[in-house]
Every structure is written in structure tokens, then in C-alpha cells.
Amino acid sequence: xxxxxxxxxxxxxxxxxxxxxxxxxxxxxxxxxxxxxxxxxxxxxxxxxxxxxxxxxxxxxxxxxxxxxxxxxxxxxxxxxxxxxxxxxxxxxxxxxxxxxxxxxxxxxxxxxxxxxxxxxxxxxxxxxxxxxxxxxxxxxxxxxxxxxxxxxxxxxxxxxxxxxxxxxxxxxxxxxxxxxxxxxxxxxxxxxxxxxxxxxxxxxxxxxxxxxxxxxx
Length: 218
What we know:
By secondary structure, the chain is α+β, with helices and mostly antiparallel strands. It has a domain at 162-217. It has helices at 18-25, 55-64, 89-100, 125-135, 164-176, 187-194, 198-217, and strands at residues 2-10, 29-39, 45-53, 68-75, 78-85, 104-111, 117-123, 141-150. The radius of gyration is 18 Å and the shape is globular. The mean pLDDT is 84.
């Protein structure tokens, strides 16, 4: 079995859904991952998502959205949310494409910082070929291939969980000696290497470490 990791972005440069755009733009919350997503027979979408930050602000945005039919949140600083909402054309197109393709989607699906998504698909070369023949017909979604190869559920589970920018920050941190013992670089030096603010790099490094150490202890 092979894997194919791709990044999905809205073709128009906006967002997949107005609700998602609003959540991504809110600085007090972080959209971390989707653990389950399903297009229901009634046309609505059911999701189980993971987030962190200001739960009350998240609930306020969800309650204010006319697209949300119902939702439930559990947890405090890090929380899980079950929601059912009306999809946009882009979301419906993606989920219909997934339903019709002969591949399995590895979860969780990680959010990029801009609201796009990174996901890993499992299947064989014939399934991937058929998938890309169909994806050329999608009007609302741009797809970029990140990596492909033989699937090993253990070998690359760390890097597959990171966003593209987190991979860049991690590579720079290793290169400049941030993780050497004794440490040979500061977060500011990592930030200079990637052209980001030190506070942004610090946030990325904390999320990288949380995901890697979390995977190690599961």
C-alpha cells in the first residue's frame, strides 16, 4: 500500500467555508485537526474536530453562524467539538470527491495556518491516478502533492502530522542547533533563518513538540 500526502487550498484564495474563514481569522482560538468528517444523506456535514484556546469565543462564533445546525464542545483549553453544518459548494465538492474515490483518508487531518488542510491518502497507484483524473475537474479546490511513497504507519507519523510551515521551522531549528545539547541557537535565530517573528516561531515549536511527544506516548 502507498500513501499520498496533499495540501488542499481554496482555488479562489479565500476559504472553504465562511465559518472556517471566521474561525481561522480569530486570534484567540486555534483549529488543530479534524478527526472525522462525513457528508450525511440529508446534505449536511458532520465533523469531530480538535481545537484549543478560548472555548467561549469558539462557541460564540459557532452559535452565531447561520450555517451551523447543532454543535457540542467538550474540554477547556484544548477541546473536542462535534458539529453538524450546511456545507459550502467547495466543502460539498471535496467530500463528494472523497466519497467517490477509491482511497482511504488517514486521520487526523491537520489544518494549515491559513485554513487549508493537509491530508494523507492511502491506496495504490491505480487509485491515485484515478483520483487525480477526477481532481482536475474540481472548480473550487487546488491540490498540491507534498509527498508519496510506500506506507509505513510508524515511520513517518511525526512529519505527516505537521503543516508545511511547521516542517520548515523544524528543519531550520535542527539546522541551526536549537535542539543540540547544549543548545547552540535561540528561537530568535531560528526565526531569522525562516523569516518569521520569534513569537510565531515559538508557537510553531510548541505545537511541533506537542504533536511529536503526543505521538510518542500514544
